Structures
1.
Amino acid sequence: MRTDLELSALAAAELAVRRDPAAADAVEKCRVALADEAPDGQRIALLVGWGYLALRERTEARECFRAAVSYETEPHLTDRAALLAGLLAARDLEAPALAGAWYRASAKLIAVLDQINFTDDLTTQFTDDMIWPDHPELRGDVLPHLVTTLDARSRSLTALTLYALHHAHGDADAAVRAAWQVVQLGHPTYLAAAWLAIAETLIKQGDNATAAKACQEALSAEGQFSARLLLGLAEGPEADVQTQAGTLLGILQRDAGDLESALATLTAAAHGDDPTALLALAQTHDLAGDPAAAQPIYAKLAEHELSEQYQDAIFNLGLHAKERRDLPEATRWFRQYIEAGYAAHPLAAAHLGELAYWVGDKQAALHWYQYTLDHTDLPVLVEEAEQRMAELLKPSGG
């Protein structure tokens, strides 16, 4: 049953749609009353916001829509409020607010947004009945007027946000379609981010050839920040788009067997000492048979214990020492890896066991092989450890 305040808000919104002179006071009175009467306020906040939007009072409208989103009492109302709050945030180029609103949307609203082409006429795609399908009296081209205020940059931002939504929900095809709209719009702030987004998604889909072309476009496009940074979704600092694109391209070239091009691309990407680019460069030097070039890069990465690349760096430093038959150095790095509890710690112990076996350190070999047996049931590691331990423990002359 509708409350008196809801009926008043409905009447005020209708006055605003009709541009009645009494509308402004009526809408404002409902807003003040809503502030004092929070229960069942989602629909009222949406109505009051719609009234403000019809009156072209977009700041007030946005605050009401944000309040309506926060109630989350009725999913279909949350969707409508999120759509409107997001469009207003896009108009003001407030990317985190746009992402924050649309990330509250349900799959139903995301499906609706996926049908929108932000490169085309939006006034025929965003209609008032999207918000008020059961209230014809509230329709008056309010939403179409709002989307006429979205310029190319605002449209690019909305399409990039839609890409992020699809990416978060694991819909790679829809994510790529949204990112392509950003490319078609061509706004320099978002162009490089869109190409990088396309490349990252295509790699997950296995289309490495097209992904490599997208990386090359990102390298030459304007704009320095990724979609995650632009939308306020990054969990920490990130390299610029060109560094990320260069790293991806170098890895793709490496995986395709073009080590010469990969080394050139990754050397350029690692110029600013980005840890991801440095690790990819070091690994590529290893594949090219040049551990001497890889060694100092791994050592640099090993100086930063809190980085994501640290564990790969110290594991590879252990492998390099093993190749040189340097048991103390291999023990230094592999022990750090093992004591940190990284995923491949049984393998690190197996490497130490093997190296100790090679250099004739029986006690060290037994110790590390026993550690391997105690921490894994992987057949290839278990079989080697058991065989070598049996050999080492076999009585002399037996």
2.
Amino acid sequence: MWLFLAKNKNDIIYLLLLLTSVAIGPFYRTINKIRAKKWIGSLIGILIIVIVSGYNAIHPLLSACLGVILIKLTTVRYCHVFTFFFMFAYLFFFRLADKFGLPLPSGQTNLIQMIIVLRVVGVAFEINGSWLMMGKAKKDNNDDIKKEKDDDFVEVINPSLEDLFHYSFNYIGLLTGPYYRYRTFDDYFHLPFSKYVDYTGFTINTLKMVPLYVSLYLALSNLWPLEYILTEDHNNRSFLYRMMYPWALFAQFRQRIYSGMTLAESVCTSVGFGAYPVEGRNRTGHGPTVGYLKLKKMSNEEAKNAQYDFNTIESMDVWGCETVVTLRDSMKVWNKAVQYWVAMVVYKRFPIKPLKIHAALFVSVIWHGIHAGYFFCIYFCPFYVMAEDIYYKLYYKNATGMKKKIMSFVMWFLRSHSESYQAAAFLLLTFDRIWIYYSSVYHYWYGVWLVFLIVGLVLNQLNKSSRPRKSVDELTSEKVK
């Protein structure tokens, strides 16, 4: 028992801090004075950083303060660029601290630093994006055009230095996320939704699965430990056993992530943070996507009778992670808040269109860390998706009945196996450790990917050539329609 506690001391402290953050939520929610509420939230956040990091707390504190000062010192046209490069440069320095004679921060401090990077860079892009959008709207004179869906920015975002400080350090979401926009943070203090949402019911509903996730993680990690995969005993097992061992590793990793993300969501729900009326068609990370300005004008009486959701702060679709058929869909339901940040900050804003996906993947890799395992895991996804898309269109998309059920299982199995194979690299981290395991299975899955892709391309070409060509009259008719 004591050996277990000593071995997992940091994780236990982290878990207790998350549970404490959930517990204090109802009290924090009742604070009425906005400025006092912001300061209390920031002080709790700073206290959490110090408890988790000790002397290494200087890194998240210093980088966030310098980042928000940089935002205010630079022009709105370029603040996002300067902030992005500064925060990621500091992230590299932070992770290479031992090379500069400083103690290397713990994994828990690393998680906090990662969230700080998302917040500071994200708000810089919000400020710049809102400035660009408002300038375009003014130039085009289209403010009054009715749209089914809101633009990414529907009003100018220009927080003060003090508000940037509070956004960076507020304890809500600081430990494990989720990432949320500055707009969501500001709405929490100025809109009435948190007063009327059933925060207790949502929190209980969110927390109820956590004991199961924790129990499964402890059981799986005890039965199939990570280090065993590097032993000679493992290498002497059958090829099938070695091939399937990453399924156990990825299963325990998922339970760990589910536990942390679910508790992090509960921190938000316990204070009513991220609650919006369902009519806003709320999306993870973003918030309302329809009628946002109308929601801001909602009276207290209307807010009291509204129906709410917490989609804005939902990070993990657990059921989706376990059941979706394709890797493409799996990536959409895994850590959705960070996926949103990468899409908004990198993918949509990167200026060279053919390189957008590569830029997004590269930033995702370096945000996770500097180890080879992150590259092997994240950067190889598109190569599997290329093959997957071909088979999806050829055999799954229009399938029905028993054929669709069989294809669903086959594609789910292949997707799950691919994720498990990549997750082994993510967990082993360093190139030498990854090479030991991949060599033990002869690097087979990369060969399978290549064969899948080549065969898929051939089948796709044969399918195209076997289609009857449409007549001129049919093509003309389609164009008219």
3.
Amino acid sequence: MWNDVRRQGVLLSRALGAREPSEALLARAPRAWMRVLPHVLAFAAAASLLPTGIVVLLNDYGLPGALAGLLGVAQAAPLLLAAARPLSAWYIVFVADILTALALLLWADTLGNQAWPWPPPAIIGYLLLCLPLSLRLPRRTLVAVWLATVAAAVLLGLLNPDHSPGSNVLLVVLSGVVLLLGGAVRERSEAQHVSEVERARRTLLEERARIARELHDVVAHHMSVITVQADSAPYRIEGIPEAAREEFATIAGTARQSLAEMRRLLGVLRSEGSEGSDGDPQLAPQPGLDELDALVESAVHAGVDARLTRSGEADGLPQAVTLSAYRIVQEALANVVRHAPGSAVTVTVAVDDARSALRVEVVNGPAATPARPLESHGTGHGLIGMRERTRLVGGELDTGRTADGGFRVAAVLPLAEPTRGEIS
């Protein structure tokens, strides 16, 4: 039995040790007067109860003036903290009310028919404090506050069993009602907030799927036209050299690959779809290190002097790592095509057995014959995407200018599965 009591006491102390709210009551209200209102009401309550409580302790209970003033201030002044730190205010008021009850029992001229252990101003102040307490703190803390109130009422009642328990019953019942109603209002408000957040998230997903479908409809048409024109050009135009035929075939193949990747991404973004179907884009093979040769070759066809260097055993590497490496190289080469056409690019992919990591480096130098870039200003989305892909596998990304005016992208992707702490 003693172990059960001690366990309940530990749970009660933990609940009463909850963190204070990080913001004051109505701190995020849209209007300034609403944000100030809780503080104004707290000041009004403290200003009215402070003199009233002192006068009641002096005249009705006959406490000495200094003691009555000290207890009156301790009971009313903490209400000023009710809007910002309600739990701290409750601790002070709770202790002050208990000390007041003991002082009345020891030093009051006579209790007679006066309310004890809780004088009327103490009951009013306690109930006013329970309201912001219930609106800001979780349910378990409110239950602990009410149980502490009940325990104090019972223990004080045992000290003077002959006195009427009216104020004890009144405080216990009314505080429980206020805590219950305030907690219900708070939980309802939180549920509405969660519902609004979920609704906004669902709207975002639906909008993303709509944009993906529209993007597919717009771009797929043009890509299809490019594919058909590139495929049919050798048959429509007479006397095309063999090198031009190969160039048209490369263009058609690149367009088909772009269409395939766009359809796969469209399937990922769709909010509806046939799961488990053979054409599920999420189950389609993802590019990896084996596709880097074709990627570099496509950059060469785009006018970039690109070379690929490999080292280390690349078999059996995690798919997430190889996919991230492929996307980093893809984005880096795309940046070179857009911003530094004609540059010499070196792509290095190495498996570092010592650090159990895959190193990816893309370095481009100044162009031998400078050409006008396709884009003069970048959006930065490419670098953001590379950093995100590196972060998701727990790696490190380093980007910046080289000494000769080129640009360098270097990523170290660990081959071990990253822990939650490494990617957070």
4.
Amino acid sequence: MKFDIKEEEMIIKPYKAAGPIYIREQTGFFQRIRRNVGWLLMLSFIAIPWIQYNDQQAVLLDVATQQFTIFGLTLLPQDFMILAMLFMVAAFALFFVTNWLGRVWCGYTCPQTIWMLMFSWIEQRIEGTRNQRIKLDKSAWDSLKWRKKIIKHIAWLIISVLTATSFLAYFIPAKTLYLEMFNLEWSGNTSFWVFLFALCTYGNAGFLREKMCTIACPYSRFQSVMFDKDTLVVTYDHERGENRGARKRKADPKALNLGDCVDCNLCVEVCPAGIDIRNGLQYECINCGLCIDACNDTMDKFAYSKGLIKYASEKQMAGEKINPFRLKLVGYGALTLILVVSMFAWMLQRTPIEASVLRDRNALYRVNYEGLVENPYTLSIINKTQQPMNYSIKLTGLKDAQLRKANNIEVAAGQMKHIPVTVIADSYSLQSKITAISFEITALQDSTIKVSKQSQFFSH
């Protein structure tokens, strides 16, 4: 058997034409949802560092002092578990949503998508519509082209710097950061990070754009593992749409042996990833729904029913019902719920004080001039609250023993203090050479803030 296959037919075509993607601006139901969600997230991103709580910045991730403050809750390196659980909750919640609704995270809430489409919106206001931008890029470099390009890039750079500064306000107190910015007093370290994040924003949203989603982002690569036949994704109704072809608005498609797709190509022109959804589900699709809005507009103009492109699962397209209790979806949801409950249970058990006891390594004990046995210790107290605290130390487990310590034990907010203490006892009153003892540390401002640490007392 002989196969006559031309060489050019063996070449796999890319998912889009080479060159930049010129996104056509689109309005519609899903575009309004995306823009409203995008504005809400952007404004929240900018506003959160300015929220005050107890006369302090409500959310401050102070890496320099290794303190994360979130609405009165101060997390220290010792609280790494809660941060790890938070990341796990976010991961399983993302898996749950992906299995249910596909890549809606990418299409509606991902910072890369929000900033990419915002940069595209600015580009359209300065350089014009899709056709005008294509014409401008193909034209010679005259004064008009230079002016539009310079204005666009200046606008992009301003937004990039503001984005980087807003991001850094989560790690440096916002008032200090912006005051130093207006006074041109940024340190070299602050300037470096602002410049770096601004450069990343400018490059990602202005130039890389969809390449970050299709090439760099790992999520687009492993998302198919979380999909199943019940996952809702942007889908083209092939049976209804084919054969596709142009026609007059009042023409009867059945008489022309055509489907409902008029081959206007708008679904491709509005797509941020530049794909043709009519070719089937592709990993580049970010489920933003812009092609649905574009197609519905066209269907309205031709008086066809909407939904030629829609959110639908493979089962729905085959005429079957979705199974809302499938094992994968229920499993992701259950794991997310378990982690959330575990995280809050851990937080409820968390005490705003942490302490440790360290014995003197030089000697187990010493005998003073009165013949009494002394054991020196060092108590390390960590104040996890947001205000300075005074503490009392009480010794239990050793009768008639003396506790020598500082009179005033004050620990600043979020700080650790080492307190040297000495336990003194008469060896004749002890029943053994090693006695278990406990140090009870209690906050004077709030007696519910306390902790007990065990140690041992040695004698001859």
